[in-house]
Amino acid sequence: MFQKIFIIAFLVTLVYIVLHRIVVPSNKRLPGNSTNNRLSIIGMLRILVYLAVLFCFLVLAMTGFYPTLVLGKHISGYLVMVHATFAPVFAVCLAVLAVMWARRWRFTSGDWPWFERIVQRLTLSNKPGNDTTRKSSGIGQKLSFWLIIFLALPLILSIVLSMFPLFGTYWQEILLSMHRYTALVFAMVAIVHTYFIIRT
Amino acid sequence: MLKDLEERIDCKLRKGLVLTGFSCLLVLCLYAPIVCLESKAAGAESPGKLLGDESDGSRAQPAHLIPLIAENEDGEQGGKVYPDDDPLLSFSMRWTCGDCHSYGIISKGWHFNATDPNVAPGRSGQPWILSDARTGTQIPLSYRQWPGTFRPEKLGLSSREFVKLFGRHSPGGGAGELETEDMDEIMREYVSGKLEINCLSCHNAEFAHDQGENFLQIARGNFRWASAATCEFASVSGSADDMPETYDPFMPEPPEDAKKVPPTIKYRESAFDHENKVYFNIVREVPNNRCYFCHSNLYLEAEDTEKWNVEEDIHLKAGLKCVDCHRNGIDHNIVRGYEGEESASTNHLAPALSCEGCHLGETDSFSPEAGRLGAPVPKHPGIPPAHFERMTCTACHSGPWPIEKTVLTKTSRAHRLGTIGVNKSHEALPHIISPVFSEHSGIGAAYIGRLLLLKAGKIAPHKMIWPAFWGIIKDKDITPINFDVVRQKVGQVLSNLSLPASGDWPALSDENVIQALKSLKGTVEGEPVYVSGGKVYSLDDSGKLWSEEHKAAKPYLWPIAHNVRPAAQSLGIRYCTDCHATDAPFFFGDVAVDSPAITGRGTKKMVEFQNVDPSYARAFAFSFVFRPMMKIVSLGSCAVIAVVLLLYALKALACVVKVLAGQD
């Protein structure tokens, strides 16, 4: 079942990326995202954190998904050891990523127009608001970033909490399923986020 | 003319009818005695059920006030036994109990059907162990097809010899009732009788029942009298083995040697009532004490191993009886209680009476089934489900708590516990060691007439013996040498070695083994070898001793199920490091390699028996040192992420509030 869902999710993500690539023109840069800026130490650190998260994600994805998808059995042996070794590193890097990049990826006024229109429709407000000029704000990147940060919580907590003598066998299996499916969604979102990063 | 013709036809038809009827009658008359004889030979097994084969639903115990019935000289049902009979015969279980309970059906039960080749062997169980200190022998025997055991006839043991050695801790039947083809044994069998199923060994609730008498009577060759000797109102003296082969127990003549006493039974006079019936205190549910005679264990992990120092099984302490789980009907196809038993047993309660069956029940059953017999339903908090796929329930809950090294273990059947003159020394042969945490060897299930070995693979605690025997290697297969030959040849070569008083075997040097192999070389067909301590020893072309590993030398293991410890004493109850630590006995305990050959002795690590990479096990155990740190780091990271999310969620909420308030 999980294999089928993974394949479908992966295909949907792939299709979305391909369509986005075709439909949305590229060469758009975020404001203040000039390539002419010299990287400070902090800036380098931020990029390093991003790379570290990406690297940890790749290792965890391979060690986690390979036995389930390819071998058809639970993760075990040296794979689980590698997975468990990179997991806390990944958690720390995510926390640092959240702190360092949250402001950069916060939703700004450029992201408002559509939301403002939704609110006006919902509240039936006739107030002619100032039409904010639609600027390309990297909404996809922001959304995917915040989804990653949000999904990190159930992803990490589902497995850490199972290590405490709190939950019996029934809930252990639920936590394991939660970890598995959250990881699946996380992976898809991470792929999309990486695509947006590369595009900009 | 037509009328004549009609009359003639009519007459012929009548004659034909009469002839046909007469023929049918003749056939019936010939066939009926055969059917009667067969049904008698089957032990009163009739197509219909006997009185005691089926319950009427009353849970009250019926009173067994019944006459004693002996067998006759043909082995068939004889007359009733009266206290003033001359000669006074032993009553037969088969004919006394068989009057109401189908002996033929009962004799197919698990405790009696080891010699039936059509019975699926199921999970490997405890073998009979032939041990001899002088020849450095301890070899697992079984009539069942358990991998790693040898059939008794492979060592030249007839069924009678097998019964003489091991019948002491059996409820009779099985090998005790096999027909022999050996002329010498046929004569002896008539004198001794057959070892019938002793119903009393399980179902006699009388405190005065003495199952230990079984050992004495079998040792004396008094098979026919053994069952009666165990009961509270009879005593047996004399020995059938002391009698000549021409002795007739049904018309006994005093032996020429006055010192030799023929087998004689005496009944307590008060046992017979005014109708010459005897009261048997028979219960359907076998008392635990009866099971204990054959199924006791003694773990020699401490010097003081008295019973009051050791806890019994938690189920018994909770008020259950052995037979509350190990149930059967009239077919005596008892539930053994292991996972997957339904593949080898026809008892429909087998899955329901396993650990999971009682404690967890069936998840997809119509009605709730968990917690039968008051079994607590386990939560197993904090234990990853992978443990239940990789290990049996007994791995954490049964047997002795694992310590740094395996311990010597005694069992009733291997060490004849509960009988007179038992060697109480810890080192007495055979050497059984436990607990050994190993993968299951699989379940032997019968499948359309063939034996199918189902792969099990779960880790469970086992008892283990390292086979030690003298054999012949041919085409890479090793078969044991006839034990009489071994006793004669090897025993002679090793006769100068002093045997320890403890019953242990002597330490054999390489030279001892070489001499013994040389003594066998000219006597047996093929290359003689000595199997011991997981290795096979043989002589090379230059006469030097060399050894190699061989599958026939692999240890024989059988799972431990009892005693079950309480939940508060299960593995993992304290922390994961009960098992996942670099010094945890579960993975890294020492398993003694037991051998009389000095060079063969040593230890192995427990992990070598579990199909697990030892370096992985060690690395994984080491990782648990950092586990608390990992939890703290992960939870800390989650806290930081949660704070960031909360912060920006609140900021987003502030924006929404402004929008709704109509502000920019």
Provide structural commentary.
The complex is a heterodimer of chains A (200) and B (664). Chain A has 200 residues and is mainly alpha-helical. Chain A has a domain at 141-200. Chain A contains six helices and no strands. In chain A, helix 1 (2-23) packs parallel to helix 6 (169-199). The longest helix of chain A is centred in the N-terminal third of the chain and has 31 residues, at 41-71. Residues 30-36 of chain A have low confidence and may be disordered. Chain B has 664 residues and is of the alpha+beta class. Chain B has three domains: 62-119 and 157-280, no CATH class; 120-156 and 295-625, no CATH class; 627-664. Chain B has 20 helices and 23 strands. In chain B, strands 10-11-12-15-21 form a five-stranded antiparallel sheet. A five-stranded antiparallel sheet of chain B has the order 17-16-18-19-20, covered by helices on one side. The longest helix of chain B is centred in the first third of the chain and has 40 residues, at 2-41. Classes of the chains: A mainly alpha (200), B alpha+beta (664). The A-B interface holds A 74, 76-78, 80-81, 84-85, 87-88, 91-92, 94-95, 98-99, 102, 106-107, 112, 115-116, 119, 123, 125, 127, 130, 146, 149-150, 152-153, 156-157, 160, 162-169, 172-173, 176 and B 378-386, 388-389, 613, 616, 619-620, 623, 627, 629-631, 633-638, 640-642, 644-645, 647-648, 651-652, 655-656, 659-660, 662, 664.
Features:
heterodimer; A: 200 residues; mainly alpha; 0% strand; globular; B: 664 residues; alpha+beta; 5-stranded antiparallel sheet; 20 helices; 16% strand
In short:
The complex is a heterodimer of chains A (200) and B (664). Chain A has 200 residues and is mostly helical. Chain A has helices at residues 2-23, 41-71, 78-101, 112-123, 139-161, 169-199.
